[in-house]
Design goal:
Length: 127
């Protein structure tokens, strides 16, 4: 179940990172135009605010230290996609192992039934 939760988290995280990259690219493209960008953003769940972006030389993203948002976001996106790929491979391996285990259990059960029938036939024949 933990792997499935990680898969869900990564599948939700990748579009968010892509959206952040799009926003940064939009801000960089509008740099130097002299026209303010008005945007709505989510402050908290269900609470939105409107802001006005003036022509600035930098974009601040809450990452914890001074760094370039685009490079960090691209790196995070690459890491998330790589993690998702590894996770999907692991999940497929586990599905295959579950199938193999179920087939083995079914074969053992059928073998046991067959052995009981042989013993029962031997007991009935000797009586």
């Amino acid at each position: 179940m933990k792997l499935l939760a990680q898969q869900r988290d990564l599948q939700a995280k990748i579009p968010d990172i892509e959206k952040c990259l799009d926003v940064v690219a939009t801000l960089q493209a509008r740099k130097g135009i002299g026209e303010a960008l008005i945007a709505d953003f989510e402050v908290s769940e269900g609470i939105y605010s409107q802001t006005r972006f003036e022509d600035n030389d930098s974009v601040c993203v809450w990452l914890g230290s001074k760094c370039h948002a685009t490079s960090v976001l691209k790196k995070n996106l690459e890491n998330a996609k790589a993690s998702l790929e590894v996770l999907l491979t692991d999940l497929q391996f586990l599905r295959d192992q579950v199938t193999i285990t179920q087939v083995t259990i079914a074969r053992l059960y059928n073998w046991d039934v067959h052995q009981r029938r042989i013993r029962q036939a031997a007991v009935t024949a000797s009586s």
